[in-house]
Amino acid sequence: MTISIITATYNSAATVRDTLASIAAQDYPRIEHLIVDGVSKDNTLDIVKEFPHVAKVESSKDKGIYDAMNKGVRMASGDVVGILNSDDLYQHNSVLSNVMKAFEDPEVDLVYGDLQYVQQHDISKVVRSWKAGTYTPNSFYWGWMPPHPSFFVRKRVYDQLGLFSLDLRTAADYEIILRFMLKAGLKAAYVPEYLVRMRMGGASNATLKHRINANKEDRKAWDMNGLKPYFFTLWCKPLRKINQFLIR
Description:
Elements: E1 3-9, H1 16-24, E2 31-37, H2 44-48, E3 54-59, H3 65-75, E4 80-83, E5 88-90, H4 95-102, E6 110-119, E7 122-130, E8 151-154, H5 155-161, H6 172-183, E9 188-199, H7 208-224, H8 233-239
Parallel strand pairs: 1-2, 1-4, 2-3, 6-9
Antiparallel strand pairs: 4-8, 5-9, 6-7, 6-8
Protein backbone atom coordinates (compact mmCIF):
# COMPACT_ATOMS: atom_id res chain seq x y z
CA MET A 1 0.00 0.00 0.00
CA THR A 2 1.02 3.59 -0.61
CA ILE A 3 0.60 6.29 2.02
CA SER A 4 0.06 9.91 0.96
CA ILE A 5 1.29 12.56 3.40
CA ILE A 6 -0.10 16.08 2.98
CA THR A 7 1.78 19.11 4.25
CA ALA A 8 0.08 22.51 3.98
CA THR A 9 2.55 25.40 3.93
CA TYR A 10 2.41 29.17 4.02
CA ASN A 11 5.54 31.19 4.82
CA SER A 12 6.86 28.12 6.63
CA ALA A 13 10.57 28.56 5.97
CA ALA A 14 11.45 28.64 9.67
CA THR A 15 10.16 25.13 10.35
CA VAL A 16 9.36 23.20 7.16
CA ARG A 17 12.86 21.77 6.74
CA ASP A 18 12.37 19.69 9.91
CA THR A 19 9.04 18.43 8.57
CA LEU A 20 10.49 17.49 5.20
CA ALA A 21 13.53 15.81 6.72
CA SER A 22 11.42 13.69 9.05
CA ILE A 23 9.38 12.37 6.10
CA ALA A 24 12.44 11.84 3.91
CA ALA A 25 13.96 9.71 6.71
CA GLN A 26 10.98 7.34 7.01
CA ASP A 27 11.82 3.69 6.30
CA TYR A 28 8.45 2.88 4.74
CA PRO A 29 9.11 2.42 1.00
CA ARG A 30 5.87 3.73 -0.57
CA ILE A 31 5.32 7.35 0.44
CA GLU A 32 3.71 10.07 -1.67
CA HIS A 33 4.52 13.44 -0.09
CA LEU A 34 2.32 16.29 -1.30
CA ILE A 35 3.00 19.96 -0.56
CA VAL A 36 0.02 22.31 -0.74
CA ASP A 37 1.30 25.87 -0.51
CA GLY A 38 -0.71 29.04 -0.07
CA VAL A 39 1.60 31.15 -2.28
CA SER A 40 4.35 31.66 0.28
CA LYS A 41 6.26 34.93 0.15
CA ASP A 42 9.37 33.59 1.88
CA ASN A 43 11.71 30.81 0.69
CA THR A 44 9.45 27.92 1.70
CA LEU A 45 9.29 26.54 -1.83
CA ASP A 46 13.06 26.84 -2.27
CA ILE A 47 13.50 24.64 0.79
CA VAL A 48 10.97 22.14 -0.56
CA LYS A 49 13.05 21.86 -3.75
CA GLU A 50 15.96 20.56 -1.65
CA PHE A 51 14.01 17.34 -0.96
CA PRO A 52 13.67 15.08 -4.01
CA HIS A 53 11.29 12.71 -2.25
CA VAL A 54 8.45 15.25 -2.60
CA ALA A 55 6.04 13.90 -5.21
CA LYS A 56 4.07 17.03 -6.07
CA VAL A 57 3.86 20.70 -5.13
CA GLU A 58 0.83 22.91 -5.67
CA SER A 59 1.05 26.59 -4.83
CA SER A 60 -2.17 28.58 -5.11
CA LYS A 61 -4.37 30.80 -3.00
CA ASP A 62 -6.68 28.99 -0.60
CA LYS A 63 -9.36 29.71 1.99
CA GLY A 64 -7.27 28.59 4.96
CA ILE A 65 -5.54 25.47 6.21
CA TYR A 66 -8.58 23.19 5.96
CA ASP A 67 -9.09 24.19 2.35
CA ALA A 68 -5.42 23.37 1.74
CA MET A 69 -5.89 19.98 3.41
CA ASN A 70 -8.89 19.30 1.16
CA LYS A 71 -6.79 20.12 -1.90
CA GLY A 72 -4.19 17.66 -0.68
CA VAL A 73 -6.73 14.88 -0.13
CA ARG A 74 -8.05 15.39 -3.65
CA MET A 75 -4.49 15.21 -5.01
CA ALA A 76 -3.63 12.08 -3.06
CA SER A 77 -3.35 8.79 -4.93
CA GLY A 78 -2.32 6.64 -1.96
CA ASP A 79 -4.39 4.01 -0.18
CA VAL A 80 -3.95 5.84 3.13
CA VAL A 81 -3.77 9.59 3.84
CA GLY A 82 -1.97 11.34 6.69
CA ILE A 83 -1.53 15.05 7.37
CA LEU A 84 1.65 16.51 8.85
CA ASN A 85 1.67 20.26 9.36
CA SER A 86 4.66 22.34 8.31
CA ASP A 87 5.81 22.94 11.89
CA ASP A 88 5.49 19.30 13.01
CA LEU A 89 7.67 16.24 12.49
CA TYR A 90 7.53 12.49 12.96
CA GLN A 91 8.95 11.12 16.17
CA HIS A 92 11.24 8.52 14.59
CA ASN A 93 12.05 6.90 11.26
CA SER A 94 9.62 3.98 11.56
CA VAL A 95 6.44 5.93 12.30
CA LEU A 96 4.83 5.31 8.92
CA SER A 97 5.93 1.66 8.85
CA ASN A 98 4.22 1.12 12.19
CA VAL A 99 1.09 2.92 11.03
CA MET A 100 0.87 0.88 7.85
CA LYS A 101 1.25 -2.37 9.79
CA ALA A 102 -2.03 -1.51 11.50
CA PHE A 103 -3.67 -1.01 8.11
CA GLU A 104 -2.79 -4.58 7.13
CA ASP A 105 -6.07 -5.49 8.83
CA PRO A 106 -8.57 -4.87 5.99
CA GLU A 107 -11.30 -3.96 8.50
CA VAL A 108 -9.30 -1.04 9.90
CA ASP A 109 -10.18 2.28 8.25
CA LEU A 110 -8.53 4.66 10.74
CA VAL A 111 -5.26 4.55 12.68
CA TYR A 112 -4.12 6.98 15.38
CA GLY A 113 -1.35 7.30 17.94
CA ASP A 114 0.12 9.66 20.54
CA LEU A 115 1.70 13.10 20.21
CA GLN A 116 4.18 15.27 22.09
CA TYR A 117 4.12 19.06 22.17
CA VAL A 118 7.60 20.56 22.07
CA GLN A 119 9.02 24.04 22.47
CA GLN A 120 8.78 26.26 19.41
CA HIS A 121 12.52 26.84 19.15
CA ASP A 122 13.82 23.64 20.75
CA ILE A 123 12.10 20.49 19.53
CA SER A 124 14.08 18.36 21.97
CA LYS A 125 12.22 19.87 24.94
CA VAL A 126 8.84 18.25 25.58
CA VAL A 127 6.16 20.50 27.08
CA ARG A 128 3.07 18.27 26.93
CA SER A 129 2.48 14.60 26.16
CA TRP A 130 -0.85 13.58 24.63
CA LYS A 131 -1.48 9.88 25.15
CA ALA A 132 -4.66 9.13 23.23
CA GLY A 133 -5.30 5.65 24.63
CA THR A 134 -7.75 3.10 23.34
CA TYR A 135 -11.09 4.21 21.95
CA THR A 136 -14.67 3.25 22.74
CA PRO A 137 -17.72 5.02 21.27
CA ASN A 138 -18.41 6.51 24.71
CA SER A 139 -14.99 8.19 24.75
CA PHE A 140 -16.08 11.28 22.82
CA TYR A 141 -18.80 12.01 25.38
CA TRP A 142 -16.07 12.41 28.01
CA GLY A 143 -14.08 14.92 25.98
CA TRP A 144 -11.79 12.46 24.20
CA MET A 145 -10.31 12.89 20.76
CA PRO A 146 -7.10 11.60 19.14
CA PRO A 147 -4.40 14.05 18.03
CA HIS A 148 -5.18 14.99 14.46
CA PRO A 149 -1.52 14.95 13.25
CA SER A 150 -1.35 11.31 14.37
CA PHE A 151 -4.63 10.42 12.62
CA PHE A 152 -4.43 8.38 9.40
CA VAL A 153 -7.38 7.52 7.15
CA ARG A 154 -7.97 5.25 4.17
CA LYS A 155 -8.47 7.41 1.09
CA ARG A 156 -11.76 5.67 0.31
CA VAL A 157 -13.19 7.03 3.58
CA TYR A 158 -12.66 10.61 2.42
CA ASP A 159 -14.15 9.68 -0.95
CA GLN A 160 -17.25 8.22 0.71
CA LEU A 161 -17.79 10.48 3.74
CA GLY A 162 -16.41 13.82 2.59
CA LEU A 163 -13.64 16.28 3.37
CA PHE A 164 -12.98 18.95 6.00
CA SER A 165 -15.82 21.42 6.54
CA LEU A 166 -14.93 24.99 5.63
CA ASP A 167 -17.79 26.21 7.82
CA LEU A 168 -15.55 25.68 10.86
CA ARG A 169 -12.50 27.81 11.56
CA THR A 170 -10.72 25.79 14.27
CA ALA A 171 -12.73 22.60 14.78
CA ALA A 172 -12.88 21.05 11.31
CA ASP A 173 -10.40 18.37 12.38
CA TYR A 174 -12.55 17.57 15.44
CA GLU A 175 -15.68 17.45 13.27
CA ILE A 176 -14.22 15.08 10.71
CA ILE A 177 -12.97 12.73 13.44
CA LEU A 178 -16.43 12.75 15.04
CA ARG A 179 -17.97 12.06 11.64
CA PHE A 180 -15.69 9.14 10.85
CA MET A 181 -15.37 7.52 14.27
CA LEU A 182 -18.56 8.23 16.21
CA LYS A 183 -21.21 8.88 13.56
CA ALA A 184 -20.01 6.39 10.92
CA GLY A 185 -18.63 3.93 13.47
CA LEU A 186 -15.56 3.07 11.42
CA LYS A 187 -13.04 0.70 12.94
CA ALA A 188 -9.97 2.42 14.35
CA ALA A 189 -6.66 0.95 15.49
CA TYR A 190 -4.47 2.56 18.15
CA VAL A 191 -0.68 2.56 17.78
CA PRO A 192 0.43 3.04 21.41
CA GLU A 193 3.47 5.23 20.88
CA TYR A 194 4.39 8.82 20.18
CA LEU A 195 4.13 9.36 16.43
CA VAL A 196 4.42 13.14 16.09
CA ARG A 197 6.27 16.05 17.67
CA MET A 198 4.23 19.24 17.40
CA ARG A 199 5.51 22.72 18.15
CA MET A 200 3.52 24.58 20.77
CA GLY A 201 0.99 27.11 19.56
CA GLY A 202 -2.62 27.31 18.45
CA ALA A 203 -5.10 30.15 18.43
CA SER A 204 -8.00 28.13 19.85
CA ASN A 205 -6.29 27.89 23.26
CA ALA A 206 -4.44 31.21 23.37
CA THR A 207 -6.90 33.07 25.63
CA LEU A 208 -10.14 32.41 27.52
CA LYS A 209 -12.04 34.18 24.74
CA HIS A 210 -10.46 31.89 22.15
CA ARG A 211 -11.27 28.85 24.27
CA ILE A 212 -14.94 29.93 24.54
CA ASN A 213 -15.09 30.40 20.77
CA ALA A 214 -13.46 27.00 20.28
CA ASN A 215 -16.05 25.47 22.60
CA LYS A 216 -18.82 26.93 20.42
CA GLU A 217 -17.19 25.45 17.32
CA ASP A 218 -16.87 22.08 19.03
CA ARG A 219 -20.60 22.18 19.77
CA LYS A 220 -21.30 23.01 16.13
CA ALA A 221 -19.25 19.96 15.11
CA TRP A 222 -21.63 17.74 17.09
CA ASP A 223 -24.70 19.51 15.70
CA MET A 224 -23.49 19.13 12.11
CA ASN A 225 -23.44 15.37 12.60
CA GLY A 226 -26.79 15.12 14.36
CA LEU A 227 -25.05 14.08 17.59
CA LYS A 228 -25.87 15.25 21.10
CA PRO A 229 -23.08 15.54 23.68
CA TYR A 230 -23.57 15.40 27.44
CA PHE A 231 -23.94 18.81 29.08
CA PHE A 232 -20.34 18.55 30.34
CA THR A 233 -18.72 16.97 27.24
CA LEU A 234 -17.34 20.11 25.63
CA TRP A 235 -15.79 21.34 28.88
CA CYS A 236 -14.20 17.96 29.53
CA LYS A 237 -12.33 18.31 26.25
CA PRO A 238 -10.02 21.18 27.34
CA LEU A 239 -9.86 19.89 30.93
CA ARG A 240 -8.36 16.61 29.70
CA LYS A 241 -5.31 18.60 28.58
CA ILE A 242 -4.27 19.26 32.18
CA ASN A 243 -3.00 15.72 32.54
CA GLN A 244 -0.83 16.17 29.43
CA PHE A 245 1.46 18.49 31.38
CA LEU A 246 2.04 15.77 33.99
CA ILE A 247 3.10 13.00 31.59
CA ARG A 248 6.64 12.73 30.26
